[in-house]
Amino acid sequence: MTNSAKQSSPRSVLIVGAGPAGLTAGFDAANAGWNVTVLERDPEYVGGISRTVRHKGYRFDIGGHRFFSKSAEVTRWWKERLPDDFIQVRRMSRIYYRRKFFDYPLKPWNALSNLGLLTSIRCVLSYGYARLFPKRPERSFEDWVSNRFGRRLFAIFFKTYTEKVWGIPTSELSADWAAQRIKGLSLSKAVLNAFKGKADSDGAVIKTLIDTFSYPRLGPGQMWERTASEIGQRGGRVVMGARAVAIRHEGGRVTSIDSRGADGALQSFQADQFILSMPLQETVLAFDPPLPEASRAASKRLRYRDFITVALVVEGENPFPDNWIYIHEPGVKLGRIQNFKNWSEAMIGREGTTCLGLEYFCFEGDGLWTSADEALIELGKRELVDLGLLKSGRVVEGAVVRVEKAYPVYDPGYQANIDVVRAELARFGNLHVVGRNGMHKYNNQDHSMMTAMLAVRNLEGGNFNLWNVNTDAEYHEEESGPGAAPGEDRSGRLTPRRF
């Protein structure tokens, strides 16, 4: 083949994972003229954890997914995919504790009346003590939240739910997670918000306090179903039921990826470039020949939390007006409830009903994970009645969805393990990892998308460091910001320390 013929050949990119990151990369690459193939392990749904499941005329999310971003580029990208299908949803979320509803974000007078005068006084005193004598250094989630809300409010409104989500004590969970998920919020700001509005000192919206958001009429899966279709319209393809099992490489470059179909057959896919959003642990362990033992061992130490949604169709009056409710009662396994009729009525298959999504957090292989679907549906029905949120006999239908590796865990030492893996993967010039699981970062949907957008720009000659995409969708081409010490990364989130 002549040089001119080689230059005219379409450039090819293979993408693993059809979640928000993978499909964003696929669309942007196809738009830039790349020959795109996306492999998705699920045989039916695209969207990853942002998919919308269909069941007998009902549609429900795997958790709720607000479409809000500080990035104008991401927002524009969303609106271009679904120009006529976004609705504006009023956010309402509350905490359920001791059979009472507490507004979330916390509102002082609501909390005061529900907790009672004596408990409220103790909370205020605890908050004052935390401001005068904060725990230093802030190593754990417990330290971070207690310093900003006081230990009593931490115990009431953060400890039980967080330990349900992660399955480990809050004293062992890195402060990074709190810094990311509730960044910019403290009790003092929550009080000021009750009187003055929701902007921080820079005039930016604190995302924990957002009270309206955009949402696709048929759920987030509508966005990713449309994106997959548009990839096809641009000459690309999305291969469903294809699980990546081996990453072949030679001379510091990935050469192909083998996938196994639902029928067990192996298929090899070659490409010039590779973008992976599969779990970082699985990426490292899939290399053939194997990567050095140090990186394999580091990847095996990365931990994940798994997730079960029990969707229940409820007959009759809508049981509550919230989009979602956090369940802080320690006596039940239920962690959070979504009410999808309050997200979009178009997702409800029959008038006079609603669909509740009961969320259970677990580890793959534990008792919850291995329970039969029928047992999980009965558990959900029973816990709703025990909590006093629903009367017996109102549930007429149920379905169960299990999600592996839904949440990367920020446990002690996780950053050191990622650093080992990053250094090893950096040797492969045509390999790019993106997204929440691909980078073992608890990213929101928009931040996962931003890593994919920048990965495609790197295919086009850019020099963006994808690891510097942080919770505010900020990114830099350089590793360190102005004034940073050598090796210090100020554009990402805080680095956790052992405790």
Which tags fit this structure?
499 residues; alpha/beta; Polyamine Oxidase, Chain A, domain 2; 3 domains; seven-stranded mixed sheet
Give a brief description:
With 499 residues, the protein is an alpha/beta fold. Helices cover 35% and strands 23% of the residues. A hairpin with an 8-residue loop joins β16 and β17.
Description:
This protein is of the alpha/beta class. The protein has three domains: 3-52 and 71-85 and 219-302 and 411-468, FAD/NAD(P)-binding domain (3-Layer(bba) Sandwich); 93-203, no CATH class; 304-408, Polyamine Oxidase, Chain A, domain 2. Helix content is 35%, strand content 23%. The chain contains 17 helices and 20 strands. The strands form five sheets. It has a seven-stranded mixed sheet with strand order 7-6-16-17-18-15-19, sandwiched between helices. Strands 9-2-1-13-20 form a five-stranded parallel sheet. The chain has a four-stranded mixed sheet with strand order 12-11-10-14. A hairpin with a 2-residue loop joins strand 10 and strand 11. Helix 5 crosses helix 6, helix 6 (141-149) runs antiparallel to helix 7 and helix 12 runs antiparallel to helix 15. The longest helix is centred in the N-terminal third of the chain and has 16 residues, at 117-132. It is globular and about 70 Å long. It starts with a helix and ends in a 40-residue tail after the last helix. The model is unreliable at 1-8, 194-208 and 471-499 (pLDDT under 50).
